[in-house]
Design a protein that fits this description.
The chain is of the alpha/beta class. The chain has 30 helices and 18 strands. The protein has a 6-stranded parallel β-sheet. Strands 11-16-15-12-14-13 form a 6-stranded parallel β-sheet, with helices on both faces. Helix 5 packs across helix 10. The chain is globular and about 85 Å long.
């Protein structure tokens, strides 16, 4: 039995605590039986993390170790919390609380408010956007509908990162966060929004967390009551915890350590909401006695899909990449991922629709197929292609293209301009149909250059830009077409796509696809500028884009197709390039720089590079998957025979080299590499080069110094003698 086995709708409740453990793999069983002290589960995509933690709770309850009412399991969506409750009921542990952070905090706030504050709790503001609009108006700052959404999102980001209005501009600058407007304006709006809430005795969802934190900090008696109620905590998707949620969790825990967290730093894709993987990555530092279990057996995807996923992360950089998990597929082999290059976007959409029809004809249900893209504005051409091919589809996490507010408004404006004709002053200088459309849509927010950053303003611009492109394509295919002809074409397209849809192919953005899976996945539009997106400027933003693609790849169970178009429209200049993230992985491409992509399948790859076998701990013999442990050649928990004095000499030498080079110390050697050197104490270049992190370039540059230090000599004195 594997974690991927589809269970009955009404599975039989296990007869005993030991029966709860049946069917778990060794690592999942280790999670399920680790019931005391801090536990950190590093769980890769498709490795059965929800199965592991629900069986852990159920085993503890059924064995009489965890009283059901003493357990609080928290996650991030109502869907995930509902799924967890359902699984716990099926396992005979129905009395456990499984809630979102907000739901758990709201329940506590409602109970303690009359006792602590007195009177009725303020009314909960369901939608804050109207109050934000009023605050902006009082500040004499005009915001359209989409700017309002962006500013509202910024206020939410500020609150979950525990940033007050006065500190917002400095926080934005420090975090390199992309603000949708001038930070000083947002600070003004934010401050007045908070004042309006106080005046009207209302609170928002972020206040629920903030107020609960405030009560638990100020009233130790209340904190003690909650801590007596909840003795054991489980947190799912821990890489998505915000600073505010972590603060609340710390207060729930107090000085206890009965905490189990589950996450994967390589699936951190929501940093724009305040989520950070730092709490997951620092867990062992904060809890030195923690049990750490890694789930790397992938029950979802075939070895071919897993191979590509591992290759993507093999090229990743940054702190999250150092903790990546090397997945091992548990499924039978399947087809290789397909890589398809198209001349233009319509051809890509038509080719995708054609391939989907072939899969459906071969027996793959339409509901087990997904088309995933970077931004929602990309959906229109796929909606059209699937509708033309007679393939039913459904959109997830977005309105249909022609139902979007900005598209409806644009349709009204174009229809009015078509009726007015030459009487519309907007069209005086427009020489052709595309120019007329650009003139009309410029009144609705379209500009020749896209707005900076992400958010609703960018989404609105992308939708309007899609209409401009459609007008250009229409004029190219219909000589002499008028604005009225285009309006008719838009109406016909909208009508064709408003037909009721049955269970069909899923169209979704990569963000909306998180937590889902399908038999067949098409990742489309994978060009530079879209993946990574143009406004990903910093290294960390680019790495988050890579993780987003990784999430997309790991949604596929069996069939995976990746595609891109060389130009936007038929006959256009073929100036686009496929995403850099596939360099060294797709056939015919080369790895970035001199680094061969991990698990690469590029042409000629096997001839250039020997495939490395598993790295084993030199102490206990266990297979290593953590990058830092692989550098040390041992588990972090295994005994170290490091020469502490040598390690300190190496660190001092590294600091001097870093100053000379004007670079950070880790650019010389990382801490893990220095530890590995201090443990191995190499005596010659061959032994030194065998240590992970000591490549040919660093061996040439620093090898003599390092070997001299290992021999107890001073490298500087040696250089003077030479």
């Amino acid at each position: 039995m594997t974690a991927a086995t589809h269970s009955s709708l009404f599975p039989q409740v296990p007869e005993s605590a030991d029966a709860v453990l049946d069917g778990l793999d060794p690592e999942q069983r280790e999670v399920a039986t680790a019931l005391h002290g801090p536990v950190c589960v590093l769980a890769g995509a498709g490795t059965g993390k929800t199965r592991a933690i629900t069986h852990r709770i159920a085993y503890g309850v059924r064995a009489g170790i965890l009283p059901p009412a003493s357990v609080l399991a928290v996650t991030f969506t109502n869907r995930a919390a509902g799924e967890m409750r359902g699984r716990l009921r099926q396992l005979g542990a129905g009395g456990v609380q499984a809630r979102t952070f907000h739901s758990a905090a709201l329940r506590q706030l409602q109970y303690f408010w009359p006792k602590v504050i007195g009177g009725e709790m303020p009314r909960l503001l369901e939608r804050k956007i109207q109050l934000v609009a009023e605050a902006a108006a009082r500040c004499r700052i005009r915001l359209d509908r989409n700017e309002l959404r962006d500013v509202t999102g910024e206020i939410e980001w500020a609150k979950v990162t525990q940033t007050v209005p006065a500190d917002y501009p400095a926080a934005v600058a420090k975090s390199l966060h992309d603000a949708p407007r001038d930070p000083s304006e947002i600070s003004q709006i934010y401050g007045l929004y908070e004042q309006l809430k106080r005046d009207r005795a209302v609170i928002d969802f972020e206040d629920v967390l903030l107020l609960t934190v405030g009560i638990l900090q100020d009233r130790h008696d209340v904190a003690d009551l909650i801590r007596r109620q909840y003795q054991h905590f489980v947190v799912d998707e821990y890489q998505d915890v915000s600073p505010l949620q972590q603060r609340l969790l710390d207060l729930w825990l107090g000085d206890r350590e009965n905490l189990c967290v589950v996450g994967d730093a390589s699936q951190t894709i929501y940093s724009f909401t305040g989520a950070t993987p730092d709490h997951l990555l620092n867990f062992r530092t904060r809890h030195p006695s923690a049990t750490v279990v890694k789930l790397i057996r992938d029950y979802r995807s075939t070895p071919q899909v897993v191979h590509l996923a591992n290759g993507l992360l093999g090229q990743a950089r940054g702190r999250a990449a150092e903790h990546r998990l090397e997945l091992v597929s548990q499924r039978d082999p399947g087809p290789d991922p397909g890589y398809t290059e198209y001349p233009d976007e319509p051809a890509e959409a038509e080719g995708t629709a054609r391939r989907i029809r072939e899969l459906i004809a071969a027996g793959v249900p339409a509901g087990e197929i997904a088309v995933l893209y970077r931004i929602n504005a990309q959906s229109e051409v796929y909606e059209q292609a699937l509708a033309d091919a007679g393939v039913p589809y459904q959109l997830r996490g977005a309105e249909r293209f022609f139902e979007r507010q900005e598209v409806r408004e644009a349709g009204v404006a174009l229809r009015g301009a078509a009726r007015a004709g030459s009487n519309d002053a907007l069209l005086d200088d427009a020489e052709d149909l595309p120019a007329q459309v650009r003139a009309v849509l410029s009144t609705k927010g379209w500009t020749t250059e896209p707005p900076t950053g992400s958010g609703a303003v960018r989404d609105r611009w992308e939708s309007l830009a899609a209409l401009v492109r459609l007008a250009e394509d229409f004029a190219r295919s219909r000589a002499g077409a008028t604005l009225a002809d285009l309006v008719t074409e838009l109406d016909e397209r909208a009508a064709a796509q408003h037909a009721p849809t049955v269970q069909g192919v899923t169209l979704a953005s990569l963000h909306a696809a998180k937590g889902l899976e399908w038999d067949a996945v098409f990742l489309v539009g994978l060009t530079e500028g879209m993946m990574p997106i143009t406004y990903a400027k910093t290294d960390e933003q680019v790495e988050e884009e890579r993780r987003l693609l990784y999430v997309g790849v790991t949604r596929a169970r069996l069939h995976l197709t990746l595609s891109w178009a060389l130009s936007r429209a038929p006959g256009g200049r073929a100036g686009r390039r496929p995403t850099r993230f596939l360099n060294g992985l797709r056939p015919g491409s080369t790895a970035p720089g001199n680094r061969a992509a991990a698990g690469g399948s590029g042409a000629g790859e096997s001839g250039r590079r020997k495939r490395r076998g598993p790295v084993l701990c030199r102490v206990c013999g266990k297979t290593l998957t953590d990058a830092g442990e692989m550098k040390l050649m041992r588990c972090e928990d295994c005994p170290s025979d490091m020469d502490e004095a040598l390690y300190e000499r190496l660190r001092d030498w590294r600091s001097g080299q870093a100053r000379l080079l004007g670079q950070p110390a880790y650019c010389v050697f990382t801490d893990k590499t220095l530890m590995a050197i201090a443990e191995a104490v190499p005596g010659d270049e061959r032994e030194l080069s065998a240590i992970s992190g000591v490549g040919g370039r660093k061996l040439d540059r620093f090898g003599a110094d390092v070997l001299a230090i290992c021999a107890g000599q001073d490298p500087e004195e040696d250089q003077e003698e030479d």
